[in-house]
Amino acid sequence: MAERALAMQPLAVAGSRPGAVTLLLRMVRQRRIIGLGGAILLVMLGVAIAAPALAPYDPMDIQAAERLRRPAAAHPFGTDEFGRDILSRTIFGARLSLLVGALVTLVAIAVGTVIGLAAGWSPRADRVIMRIMDGVMAFPDILLAIALMAALGPSLRNVVIALAFVYTPRVARVVRASVLVVVNLDYVDAARAIGARSQRILARHVLANCVSPIIVQGTFVAAFAMLGEAALSFLGVGVPPDTPTWGGIIAAGQLYLSQAWWISIFPGAAVILSVLALNLVGDGLRDFLDPRLRYAA
Amino acid sequence: MTSYLLGRVLALAPVMLVVAIVVFLIARFTPGDPIRVLLGEDARPEQVQALRQLHGLDAPLPVQFALWISRAVRGDLGRSLFNRLPVTRTIWQHVGPTMMLSTMALAVALVIGIPIGIASAVYRNSWLDQASLTLVMLGAAVPSFWLGLTLIVVFAVNLGWLPSSGFRPPDEGLWRSVRYLLLPALALGVPNSALIIRFVRGSLLDVIATDYVRTARAKGLAERAVIFRHALRNALVPILTVVGLTFAALMGGAVVTETVFSIPGIGQLVVQSVLRRDYPVIQGVTLIVAASYVFINLLVDVLYLVVDPRVKY
Q1: What b/e readout covers B12-27, taking b as 16+ CB neighbours within 10 angstroms?
Q2: Best residue in B16, B18, B157 to probe A by mutation, most A CBs within 10 Å?
Q3: B21: which chain A residues are within 8 Å (Cβ-Cβ)?
Q4: Residue A108 has pLDDT above 90, yes or no
Q5: Sign of CA dihedral B43, B272, B245, B296
C-alpha cells in the first residue's frame, strides 16, 4: 500500500503531467506483457540491424558438403539443401520481415487516419467512404493481397503496397469510430465557438484523441502484415526469391520435410515469436491506453 | 420483417459494387496487354485491333466495367488464359475440396473453441483460464501453413498415422476422404479457434453477470444447471457472428493450407493462376469468394431472427 501511495504522489500536483519516460515505466510496470512483448521486439530489431555481425555464416553461402545437416554446434538450426546455414538465413530474414511490418504499418496508419478523419467529420463523405471500406474488407486478407501481387508483380515495394491496401480499412474504421465520439464532446464545441477552423479542430483536438486507438491498431496491423508477408513469400508471390525471407525459407524446406524438418520449423518459430510479441504489446496497450484506465495507479 | 430483409439485401448492393470495382481495377492494373497474351507476340496489328474491339477493350473504362459486370452477373467470367475453359466451370470444379476443408476446419475450431471458452469463463482467472488465454495468443500468432508443415512432420513423417498430403473425393469412401483432410483441417481450424474462445468466454461472462443468472443461483440451482441450462443458451447466440467472421478467415487460410497439403481447391487454383499469370481466373475467384463472404454474413443476420426471439426488426 505504501508503495502505491508513493506512486500516486506526482499526480496530486495539479496540472503536472508525467514525462514520457515515467509514463513508459509505469506502463510496463502495470502491464507486464507490454514489457515482455517490447523486450522481444527490441531483441528482434537488434538482431535485424546487426544481422551481418551476428550471423555465423553468409546466408547465401552454398556449401555442398554441408547440405541437410541436422541442428548441431556448427549449425544450431541445421543447413538446407544447398548447405546454407538456417540460423544465418533466419537472422537475415528478420530484416525483411520487420521492414515490411514497419512500412505497412506506417502507410496503413497514414492513409487510414486521413480516411477515418474524413469519414468521421463529414457525414456525407462517411456514407461513401464506409461503403468502400466494407467492400475492401469483404475480401479475405490473403486472397486480396495475392490478387494485388499478381497485378503489381513481385517486389518489396509491391508487397508493402498490397498489404497496406488490405489493412488500411482497419485503421480507418478505428479512427472514424473515435472521431464520431470526440466530435460530440463539449470541448470540440468550445473550440468551434471560439472560431477555430475545421482543419485546426481536426488536427489539434480530434486527432490528438485518436492517437491511442491508432497506436493499438498499429501494433495489430504490424502483426497481420508480418503474417501476411510470410504467407506471400511462402506462396512464392512476395518479394523475389533471392532475398532470404521467413516465408521463403519455410517454403523451400517443404520439399525436404521428411529428411530435414529443421529448415521449415525454425523460421516459422521466428514468425510466431515476433507476431506474439506484437500482439502482447497491442493487448497490453489496449488495456493501458483505455482512457478510463489512464493514470490510474 | 420482410422490409428488414429487403433493406438488408439492398444494403449489400453498394458493398458488392465496391467489391466488383476493386476486382475490375486489379485486372486493369495488370501489366501486359491481355490481347497480346491471348494472340502471342507475333500477332498482326489488325488482328489485335479486331480482338480488342470484340472484347470491348477499346471502350472507355466505365463502359468496359458495365460490360464486364453484366456478363459476370449472368455467370460469364471469361475464359482461362491457361486452358481456355470458362472460368466459372474451372472454379466450380475446385469448389468441392475447399468447401469440405472449410467445413471440417470450422468444426475443429468450434469443437476446440466452445468447450475451452466455456471452461475459461466458468473458471475465470484460474490456471485453466490462463492456459486458454495462452492458447488464444499463440493461435493468433501461428501461421496456418507452418502449423500444417509441423503436423505433417509429426503425424505423417514420424508417426505415419495420416497421409502427408493430397485429396480423395468423398465418393471414394468418406473415411478415406476425411483421413486426408484431417491434418489440413487441424492446421486451419486450430488457429481459428482462438477467436471463438475469445468470443465464447466474453459472451458467457456477460451473461453470467446478468440478473436472471443471479436469480437462478439464488433459488438454489446447481451451478451446472445455471451455466448449461440458463446462461449458455443466451451466450451461444453470438457464436453465429463468429462463424460468419471465421468464414472469411477460413477462405483466406484455405488458400495457403491447400498449397501446403496439395488439395485441389480454390486456393490452390488461385495460387497456380498467379504463377501462370492467368488473370481471368484470379479475377473470378476473388469476386466469387468476396461475394460469398458478403452472402454468408447476410445469412448470419437472418439466422439471428430465427434463433433469437428477442431480435425483432
Answers
A1: bebbbebbbebbbebb
A2: B18
A3: 135
A4: yes
A5: positive
State the pTM of this model: 0.85
- Three-state SS at A6: helix
CA A272 to chain B, closest CA, distance in angstroms equals: 5
A292-296, B136-140, B281-285: least confidently modelled range: A292-296
CA separation, residue B221 to residues B211, B229, B230 (Å): 14, 10, 10
Q: Is B29 in Cβ contact with A275 (below 8 Å)?
A: no
Taking the C-alpha atoms of residue A197 and residue A39, their distance in angstroms, rounded to an integer, is: 43
From the list A161, A223, A135, A235, the residue with the least C-alpha distance to B267 is A235
- The three grid cell numbers given for residue B195, joined into one nine-digit string: 477467436
Provide the angle, in degrees to the nearest 10, between the axes of the packed helices A262-289 and B144-151. Answer: 140
State the cell numbers at B263: 488439395
Q: How sure is the predictor about B41, in pLDDT bands with cuts at 50, 70 and 90?
A: low
- Say if residues B199 and B109 touch (Cβ distance below 8 Å): no
Q: What share of chain B has pLDDT > 70, as a percent?
A: 93
* Residue B183 C-alpha, separation from nearest chain A C-alpha, in angstroms: 15
B241's CB contacts (< 8 A; 6+ apart) are: B199, B300
Interhelix angle B61-73/B2-29, rounded to 10 degrees, is 130
Nearest Cα residue to B145 out of A261, A160, A227: A227
Interface touch B14/A265, C-beta < 8 Å: no
Which one-letter amino acid corresponds to residue B34?
A: P
Amino acid sitting at position A39: A
Q: Do B157 and A258 lie within an 8 Å CB cutoff?
A: yes
- pLDDT tens for each residue of B265-283: 898 898 888 888 788 888 8
Whole-number Å distance between alpha carbons of A57 and A128? 54
Burial state string for B288-302 with b = 16 or more CB within 10 A and e = fewer than 16: bbbbbbbebbbebbe
Containing B262, the helix (H) or strand (E) segment is: none
Nearest CA in chain B to A280: B137
Arithmetic mean of pLDDT, A78-105:
86
Closest chain B C-alpha to A148 CA, distance in angstroms = 6
Say if the Cβ atoms of B137 and A258 lie within 8 Å. no
